Amino acid sequence: MAMEYGQQWSFAAESGGLGAAVRDAMRAVGAVSDTAEYAAEGYQRALDTLHGYPDEAVTEVLRRGWETLPECAYPDRWGVVQVLTDLRLSTATDVFEAVLTTPIPPERTAEFAHPYSTVGEEITIRTTAVEGLTRLAAQDDPGAVELLIRHVTDTDRSIQVACVMALRDLGEDAGVDVSPLVPEEDQDLLRFRPSAHGKGVGE
What we know:
Blueprint: H1 16-33, H2 39-50, H3 55-68, H4 74-87, H5 93-101, H6 118-138, H7 142-150, H8 157-170
Helix pairs in contact: 1-2, 1-4, 3-4, 4-6, 5-6, 6-7, 6-8
């Protein structure tokens, strides 16, 4: 399956000024990921514009993006999740949950195409959703903490590890003792060096 770049983001087409702002943010987050000059400033401006709209409305447009973009639109699907992550909207927890519970499709690349991996793209999208929940949990969002706890035992190893490490790093701030939640064979995850959270693509 070929990876498609630069979708027209039709999911935002009927949302007027908000839809235009979402398209600007999608364009800007792609530029940041490509390390374009001055891209971070442009992305932050796009986020600031979106913050001028009701959280529920912004979340709903981006939710449509997650639900309607084709599987092969990996950069755009990641962009939807990254924009929600950087906006830090409590209304986005259900979208992050939908991302985490969407089954990862089988590998689509031909053997000769490695090291590129479509499964790797899917995992990146889902760990970005975990980061989104982590930032909300750091803002005392109980729904985000609950979802991180739920996915400590996720059947996908990458999601499980990301959630364990997120709760470990949040520590007492999240009001959770993560150790009893982690299976014995995975307790070594709690001894890894903590990683920093809270920086967005454009920060």
